[in-house]
Write a structure and sequence with these properties.
This protein is α+β, with helices and mostly antiparallel strands. The chain folds into two domains: 85 residues, no CATH class; 248 residues, Fumarylacetoacetate hydrolase, domain 2 (Alpha-Beta Complex), CATH 3.90.850.10. 17% of the residues lie in helices and 22% in strands. It has seven helices and 21 strands. Strand 15 and strand 16 form a beta hairpin. Helix 3 packs across helix 7. The longest helix has 17 residues.
Length: 367
């Protein structure tokens, strides 16, 4: 199968001026007072310790200003969201108008993950095509309960890689794979919250490269106790944005835009994130909070984005290999090697990058 080897270097992409604040107020907001909106893009510099230093980033991702006087870190901002969000929103509006005195150019390589570490990261698997293909690859069936009850596991949250940080791996024999996903970040969520009441607790949205070591997964799952060694640290997108920043593309707790992945500069996939999602983010948050509250700063992942339409490509190598087995009887695509680079990005309808790009190279672990 050769459909994934399409060069995207010539992909047309229209460029537009930075959207004004008013431009993202869609019909669904017309009855709400402007002051109720939370519009912002937030990131963290690597300086300032393990939790980084909170900054506010311009809509076009070209500039930033410090938010240290509002909150030193994003986690502290989330802990006090009702107080910090309006001030961060005002700072964001001033930045986009050019009204801040200390505006600086943004260097993505200077960024840590927006949340360099989190109290909790739970990752779902909300896309049935991904679940079906990956389970087939290891000789397993999709459980009937999946159609009514989300799959979810407790992921690594003690540290996240920055968007341009290399991915260190001990051995290529582990079966190195990327997984292009969407995440949401919550405020404090009460235990047993309903999906309807969970949605307002979603405060920020971003992307993640959920690194997987495929050759370690079967042995771990065979023990009946879940992932551990097969799930190293993941990387977050340069910025996280508020749901209001996405306008009409955020509906029903889903983000309805394609997620682009390129491997070593070649097209890999652009599945639609709003299509074939069995459970929306409100349902995933409610599932995670069924028997325990979630603390502010909890990250909830969508699982790998996948569509039934294989022409859209894929968001991980495991799916490609399964499709090759179905078509040719064996996989022909190798897992990632040292030196391979993955890029994950999402664009708005004007062709502008929303979250910035995750761009990482696989490297041998040197520690």
């Amino acid at each position: 199968m050769h459909w994934r080897h399409r060069d995207i270097s010539g992909k047309p992409r229209t460029r537009s001026k930075s959207l004004t604040i008013d431009a993202i107020f869609y019909k669904r907001h017309t009855s709400i007072e402007r002051s109720t909106f939370k519009l912002m893009k937030l990131a963290s510099l690597k300086t300032g310790g393990r939790d980084g230093s909170l900054i506010v980033v311009s809509r076009n991702l070209q500039h930033f200003v410090s938010a240290a006087d509002i909150s030193p870190t994003l986690q502290i901002a989330l802990d006090n969201w009702q107080q910090t969000a309006p001030r961060l929103n005002a700072r964001y509006e001033d930045l986009n108008r050019g009204a801040c005195s200390d505006i600086q150019p943004l260097d993505v390589k200077a960024l840590a993950a927006p949340l360099p570490r989190a109290f909790e990261f739970v990752d779902g698997s909300a896309y049935l095509p991904h679940v079906d293909r990956v389970r087939k690859a290891r000789g397993a069936e999709v459980p009937e309960s999946f159609y009514v009850d989300p799959l979810m596991y407790q992921a690594t949250s003690a540290g996240f890689l920055g968007p341009c940080d290399p991915v260190p791996v001990v051995s290529e024999e582990y079966g190195i794979d990327f997984e292009s996903e969407i995440i949401v970040v919550t405020d404090d969520v009460p235990m047993a919250v309903t999906p309807e009441n969970a949605e307002p607790h979603i405060q920020l949205i971003g992307l993640i490269n959920d690194v997987s070591l495929r050759n370690l997964i079967p042995g771990e799952l065979a023990k009946g106790f879940g992932f551990l060694q097969s799930k190293p640290r993941s990387a977050l997108s340069p910025v996280l944005v508020t749901p209001d920043e996405l306008g009409e593309k955020w509906q029903d707790s889903k983000l309805s835009l394609p997620l682009h992945s390129t491997l070593n500069g070649e097209f890999f996939g652009e599945p639609e994130a709003g299509v074939d999602m069995q459970f929306n983010f409100a349902q995933l948050v409610a599932h995670a909070a069924k028997t325990r509250p979630l603390t502010a700063g909890t990250i909830v992942g969508s699982g790998t984005i996948a569509n039934e339409d294989t022409a859209k490509g894929a968001s991980c190598l495991a799916e490609i290999r399964m499709l090759e087995i179905i078509a040719d009887g064996k996989p022909s695509t190798a897992f990632m090697k040292f030196g391979d680079t993955i890029r994950i990005e999402m664009f708005d309808p004007q062709g502008e990058s929303i979250f910035g790009a995750i761009e990482q190279t696989i490297v041998p672990n040197e520690s």
